[in-house]
């Protein structure tokens, strides 16, 4: 079993707020429905995570940061939905932060499953703009950082490679692991878009910049080279793959021109990289701001199954 699922944040549909925000909050459920329709997944393949507790979150986040989320205004600025600032914080906790904590729980559970079975996919997560002290870019909790700390402490993991292929720079985890030589970060991102975090860029071990307008063939060629270089520079025993689909042609925030087949090829390359080296891998779906993203992700997972890179039947 390698797919974890949770209920996505409902805030974007609350009081018709979805129209005010580019993120498709129905994406995660639709991925699972597409996979079920394809006949490669049923309910027994879905493992429901538990919500990350405050003690879990304190492994990475400070008490002061968590307390700051008791302000609806602060939460609204992090998720970039201004009307949330006017809502009672009890409602924000229930409709926004509780679902996000479930997502964090999904990333942690995926790490455990991957160590046991070689791979796992969380059909969400990948909040790579959140660091221990600062949220932003729709990212409230630092699930990648927390997952890696969990792997170090609970899973007997000693070296982790982050392969971040979301269109945006993963500045959150870069700040969190800026001086940690146990973590190697390969970040392939568009340098001309959010977050433009030049300090965090200093902590990327292998930086691959893909400018606005980059198309599929050039992108995949750069990825092939990056994986070759990464293999020579670092020997991980665990991989966190942040697989944002905001690199898709037409995505309003990513500004790249990667085809749906290019997404499938990208994911296949990363999974093959891990499989050929017997490295456990978790995949997080991260950003993606078009309605088509859910089907593209589902089709990529079907391709991984067809290529025997994942086993959806066990």
TrEMBL record:
Pfam families for this protein: Hist_deacetyl
Record's keyword terms, sorted: Chromatin regulator, Hydrolase, Repressor
Domain of life assignment: Eukaryota
Cofactor dependence: Zn(2+)
InterPro entries to which the protein is assigned, alphabetical: HDAC_classIV, HDACs, His_deacetylse_dom, His_deacetylse_dom_sf, Ureohydrolase_dom_sf
Keyword hit for Hydrolase: yes
Record carries keyword Hydrolase: yes
Domain Histone deacetylase stretches: 21-303
Protein name (database record): Histone deacetylase 2 isoform X2
Biological source species: Solanum pennellii (Tomato)
Gene coding for it: LOC107029056
């Amino acid at each position: 079993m390698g797919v974890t699922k949770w209920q996505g944040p409902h805030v974007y549909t609350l009081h018709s707020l979805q129209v005010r925000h580019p993120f498709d909050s129905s994406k995660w459920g639709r991925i699972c429905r597409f996979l079920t329709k394809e006949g490669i997944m049923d309910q027994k393949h879905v493992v429901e995570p538990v919500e990350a507790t405050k003690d879990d979150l304190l492994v990475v986040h400070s008490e002061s940061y968590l307390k700051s989320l008791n302000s609806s205004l602060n939460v609204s600025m992090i998720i970039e939905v201004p009307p949330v600032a006017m809502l009672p914080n009890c409602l924000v906790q229930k409709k926004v932060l509780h679902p996000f904590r479930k997502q964090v729980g999904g990333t942690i559970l995926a790490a455990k499953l991957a160590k046991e079975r070689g791979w796992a996919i969380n059909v969400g997560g990948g909040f790579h703009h959140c660091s221990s002290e600062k949220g932003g870019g729709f990212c409230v909790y630092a699930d990648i950082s927390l997952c890696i700390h969990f792997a170090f402490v609970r899973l007997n993991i000693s070296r982790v490679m982050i392969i971040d292929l979301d269109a945006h720079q993963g500045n959150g985890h870069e700040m969190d692991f800026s001086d940690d030589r146990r973590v190697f970060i390969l970040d392939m991102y568009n340098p001309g878009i959010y977050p433009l975090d030049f300090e965090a860029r200093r902590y990327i071990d292998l930086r691959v910049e893909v400018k606005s307008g980059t198309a599929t063939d050039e992108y995949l060629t750069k990825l092939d080279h990056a994986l070759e270089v990464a293999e020579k520079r670092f020997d991980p025993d665990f991989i966190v793959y942040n697989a944002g689909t905001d690199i898709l042609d037409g995505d309003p925030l990513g500004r790249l021109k990667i085809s749906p087949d290019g997404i499938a090829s990208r994911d296949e390359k990363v999974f093959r990289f891990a499989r050929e080296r017997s490295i456990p891998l978790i995949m997080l779906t991260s950003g993606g701001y078009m309605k088509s993203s859910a089907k593209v992700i589902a089709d990529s997972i079907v391709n991984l199954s067809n290529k025997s890179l994942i086993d959806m039947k066990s």
